[in-house]
Input
Amino acid sequence: RLINHWFIFMIEINPSPFARAFLLLVGMIALALGVMGIFIPLLPTTPFLLLASYSFARSNKNFNDWMLTNRFFGKHLQDYITRKTIRRDIKWITIIILWITIMLSIVMLNSSLIINILLFMVAIGVTIHLLTLKGVKWLGRSLIICKKRFKIYLL
Output
C-alpha cells in the first residue's frame, strides 16, 4: 500500500551506511520495546513507536511504510504524526488504564516514597500531554477534529 502523506516525502534517508545501520538497530529495539509496552504496564508504547518510526524513516523506507500501514498501530501513528490527534475514546481509555496501572504499581510494589512520587508525576505528565492533544471522534467514514469545525476525510 502506497503512503502519500506529505511528511513521508520530506524525510530524507541518511546517506551514511553506518548511520542507517545504527538507526535501523535503534528502530528495531524501539519497536520491540513499544510492542512489549502494550502488554507490560508502565512501559510506554507510544514514545517507543514514535522513535521507531523516526528511526525507520531515516534508515529504511520499507520498515517505515510497514509501521505506518500496520493494522494495529499504523493509523494511530499517522494521525499523531500528521495532525497531533488521537481518537477521543482511545484518549480516555489510555488515561484510565494509565491511572489504574500507576495506582496498582504504587500499592503492589510497596516501594519508597520517592518512587511513588515519580510514578505519580509521570502519570500527571502523560495525562496533561494526552489532554492537550486534539480530540477526534469517528463519524461514519470521516474524522471530525473537535477543536476545529471542519471535516477531514479518511484517505
